[in-house]
C-alpha cells in the first residue's frame, strides 16, 4: 500500500501542471476576449488613434513633421505656451523645486498653494478653495463627503463622466433628469422632497455640444425647492461671460451657485490640477474627508506658480477673453453661412460640426489634416449614436486668418463630400422675401430650385426644362444626387405630396431609423385653401443629410407642410430624413 504522503507527493507535479494549463487557458480566453472587443471597436470606426505632436501646444503645432493649425485643444485662452506663463513656471521651478513628495496635510503645502487657493476664491467670489490633482479627482471626492443615504442627487443625463463616477461613489439617491429639461428637473425635485438635502448637479457647459446650462432657471428651481446647486466649470472658467468668470457670470447668477468645481488644465494654462470652491464649511469638510485630496500628492510648484500668473493676467486684462469671443463668432458665422450645422451656444468656442456618421467624421478629420487643419472626429460612445461630429475648438491664440483657413478647408471638404447644400441656402434666402400667405410660392420655388440644382450639380444640362427623375438616375450615382434636384422633380410633376429622395449610397440604404413617436405621421388638419398633405418620415443614415439647418426656413414658407413641421423639426434635430 502506498503511503498517503507518498501518493500526495507523486500526484503533486501533475496537479501543478493541470493548474498551470487551466491558468494559461484562462489567460488566453481573457486576452482573446479583449482582442475581439478591440476588433469590434475598429470595425465600427470608433477606434481612437493617438496622433503624436512634436512641439509645444499652440495655435500651430508639429504633427508627423508637418506644421498644422490646431483646432481641437482646450487651449481656449492660448495660455498653454504663453511666454509669461512659461516664464512663471520656470521661475517657480527654480525657486521651489520640481515636486513635494507628500500629500497636503503632511508636508505638501507650500505658501504658494495657499496663495493660489485665495486667488481662485477671489476670482469666483467664493469663501474658500481646495486644490486637487485634477478636476476628475475633485468631482470624485465631492459627493460622498457631503451626502449620504438620507440625501438625493439630481444630475443632468449628459453630465461629464467624472461627475457620473463621483455620484456612483455616493450613497445618496440618484435621479437623472433629461438634458436641460426644467420640467423634468422640477418633477424630480417634487419626488425627492422627503430627502434631507438635495443636490442639483450639472455641467456649466457641456463639452461635446458646447451648450450652456440654463442656470437662471435651475437657480430658481433650487431656491423654490430648497436645493443646493453644483456646477462643473471646466469648459467655462476663464473665458465665458463678460469677464471670463464662467457660466454663472454668463447667465447672470453670480454668487447663487453653492459649489463650483473646475480645472487648471484647460483654458487656464492646460497643465494639470483642479479645484472645488464655495462655502468655507464645504471646503473645510473636504480637507478632512475627501479621499482624492487626502491620498494624492500635492500639485507641483511649477504648476502652482504658472496658475498664479494666469489668474493675475485674467484679473488685470480682458484682452484674451475678448479675442476668443471674436474668433468664436467669426468661425460660427462663416460656417453657418456656408451651410454647416453647428451645435452649442454662439458665444462658446466649442463648435461641434454635426455629421451624423462615425466613419464620415473620422475620414473628414483625416482630410482636414491633409489640408493643414488638425481636428478630431467624435462618435459613439463618446457622443450618442448617429450624432458623430467634428468638435472644433477655437483659441485666443488663433488669428482671424487662421480661423478663415479652417473654414475654407471645411468648405472644400464639405463640397467634395456633398455635405454642404448650397441650393437649400439660396432657396432659404429667396423664400424669406416671399409673402408667407401667398399661394404663388410654387412657381417661385420651382424656378429657384432649378437654378440651385444646376449650381450644385454642374453636369446637369443647361436646358429650359427641369431634369426628371430618369435623367437624374441615369446621369449620377446616388451619392451625387442632391436634395434640391429631387425636390424640383417632385414639384415639377405637380405632386401634392413632397418627395425627397435619399442621396445615400446603395450600400447604406438598409440603414433606416424610424422613431416610434413619428411612425405613420399623417396630417389631418387643413387650412381654408390648403390641400391635405401626408408625410411618412423615415430617418436614414445621416452621413449626407445631417447638415440642412436651412430646411426649417423652407418649411416655414410652405403652407401645405405646416401641419408636419413639428415632426419634421424633431427629425431635423437628429439628422437626416426622407419624405415619401
Explain what the structure shows.
- Residues 1-20 are annotated as: Disordered.
- Belongs to the class-II pyridoxal-phosphate-dependent aminotransferase family.
- It comes from Hyaloperonospora arabidopsidis (strain Emoy2) (Downy mildew agent).
- One of its GO terms (biological process) is L-threonine catabolic process.
- Pfam families: Aminotran_1_2.
- With 580 residues, the chain is α/β, with parallel strands linked by helices.
- It folds into 3 domains: 60-74 and 320-417, Aspartate Aminotransferase, domain 1 (Alpha-Beta Complex); 83-316, 3-Layer(aba) Sandwich (Aspartate Aminotransferase, domain 2), CATH 3.40.640; 422-579, no CATH class.
- Helix content is 44%, strand content 13%.
- The protein has 22 helices and 18 strands.
- The strands form 5 sheets. A 7-stranded mixed sheet has the order 3-11-10-9-6-4-5, with helices on both faces. Strands 1-2-13 form a 3-stranded mixed sheet.
- Helix 4 runs parallel beside helix 13, helix 17 (422-432) packs antiparallel against helix 18 (441-456) and helix 21 packs antiparallel against helix 22 (565-574).
- The longest helix is centred in the N-terminal third of the chain and has 40 residues, at 4-43.
- It is globular.
- Mean pLDDT is 77; it is low at 5-10, 422-428 and 434-580.
Amino acid at each position: 500500500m502506498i503511503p498517503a504522503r507518498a501518493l500526495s507527493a507523486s500526484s503533486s507535479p501533475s496537479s501543478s501542471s493541470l493548474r498551470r494549463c487551466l491558468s494559461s487557458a484562462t489567460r488566453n480566453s481573457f486576452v482573446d476576449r479583449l482582442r475581439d472587443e478591440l476588433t469590434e471597436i475598429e470595425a465600427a470606426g470608433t477606434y481612437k488613434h493617438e496622433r503624436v505632436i512634436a512641439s509645444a501646444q499652440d495655435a500651430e503645432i508639429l504633427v508627423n513633421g508637418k506644421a498644422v493649425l490646431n483646432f481641437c485643444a482646450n487651449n481656449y485662452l492660448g495660455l498653454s505656451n504663453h511666454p509669461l506663463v512659461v516664464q512663471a513656471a520656470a521661475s517657480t521651478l527654480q525657486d521651489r523645486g520640481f515636486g513635494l513628495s507628500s500629500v497636503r496635510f503632511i508636508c505638501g503645502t507650500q505658501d504658494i498653494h495657499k496663495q493660489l487657493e485665495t486667488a481662485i476664491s477671489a476670482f469666483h467670489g467664493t469663501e474658500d478653495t481646495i486644490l486637487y490633482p485634477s478636476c476628475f479627482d475633485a468631482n470624485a471626492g465631492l459627493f460622498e463627503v457631503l451626502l449620504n443615504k438620507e440625501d438625493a442627487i439630481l444630475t443632468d443625463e449628459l453630465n461629464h463622466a467624472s461627475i457620473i463616477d463621483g455620484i456612483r461613489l455616493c450613497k445618496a439617491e440618484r435621479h437623472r433628469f433629461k438634458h436641460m429639461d426644467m420640467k423634468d428637473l422640477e418633477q424630480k425635485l417634487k419626488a425627492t422632497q422627503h430627502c434631507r438635502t438635495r443636490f442639483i448637479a450639472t455641467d456649466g457647459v457641456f463639452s461635446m455640444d458646447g451648450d450652456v446650462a440654463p442656470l437662471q432657471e435651475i437657480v430658481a428651481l433650487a431656491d423654490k425647492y430648497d436645493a443646493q446647486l453644483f456646477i462643473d466649470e471646466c469648459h467655462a472658467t476663464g473665458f465665458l461671460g463678460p469677464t471670463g468668470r464662467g457660466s454663472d457670470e454668463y447667465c447672470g447668477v453670480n454668487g447663487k451657485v453653492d459649489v463650483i468645481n473646475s480645472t487648471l488644465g484647460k483654458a487656464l494654462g492646460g497643465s494639470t490640477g483642479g479645484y472645488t470652491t464655495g462655502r468655507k464649511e464645504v471646503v473645510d469638510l473636504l480637507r478632512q474627508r475627501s479621499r482624492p485630496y487626502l491620498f494624492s500628492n500635492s500639485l507641483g510648484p511649477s504648476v502652482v506658480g504658472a496658475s498664479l500668473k494666469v489668474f493675475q493676467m485674467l484679473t488685470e486684462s480682458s484682452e484674451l477673453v475678448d479675442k476668443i469671443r471674436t474668433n468664436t463668432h467669426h468661425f460660427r458665422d462663416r460656417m453657418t453661412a456656408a451651410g454647416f450645422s453647428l451645435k452649442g451656444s454662439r458665444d462658446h468656442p466649442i463648435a461641434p460640426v454635426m455629421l451624423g456618421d462615425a466613419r464620415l467624421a473620422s475620414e473628414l478629420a483625416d482630410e482636414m489634416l491633409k489640408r493643414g487643419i488638425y481636428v478630431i472626429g467624435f462618435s459613439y460612445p463618446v457622443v450618442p449614436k448617429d450624432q458623430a461630429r467634428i468638435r472644433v475648438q477655437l483659441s485666443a491664440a488663433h488669428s482671424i486668418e487662421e480661423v478663415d483657413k479652417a473654414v475654407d478647408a471645411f468648405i472644400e471638404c464639405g463640397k467634395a463630400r456633398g455635405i454642404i447644400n448650397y441650393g437649400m441656402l439660396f432657396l432659404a434666402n429667396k423664400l424669406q422675401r416671399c409673402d408667407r400667405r401667398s399661394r404663388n410660392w410654387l412657381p417661385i420655388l420651382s424656378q429657384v430650385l432649378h437654378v440651385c440644382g444646376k449650381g450644385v450639380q454642374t453636369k446637369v444640362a443647361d436646358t429650359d426644362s427641369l431634369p426628371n427623375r430618369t435623367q437624374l438616375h441615369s446621369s449620377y450615382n446616388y451619392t451625387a444626387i442632391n436634395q434640391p434636384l429631387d425636390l424640383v422633380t417632385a414639384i415639377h410633376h405637380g405632386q401634392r405630396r413632397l418627395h425627397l429622395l435619399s442621396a445615400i449610397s446603395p450600400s447604406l440604404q438598409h440603414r433606416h431609423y424610424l422613431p416610434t413617436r413619428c411612425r405613420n405621421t399623417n396630417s389631418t388638419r387643413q387650412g381654408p385653401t390648403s390641400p391635405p398633405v401626408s408625410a411618412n418620415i423615415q430617418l436614414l443614415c445621416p452621413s449626407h443629410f445631417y447638415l440642412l439647418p436651412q430646411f426649417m426656413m423652407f418649411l416655414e414658407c410652405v403652407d401645405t407642410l405646416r401641419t408636419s413641421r413639428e415632426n419634421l423639426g424633431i427629425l431635423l434635430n437628429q439628422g437626416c430624413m426622407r419624405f415619401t
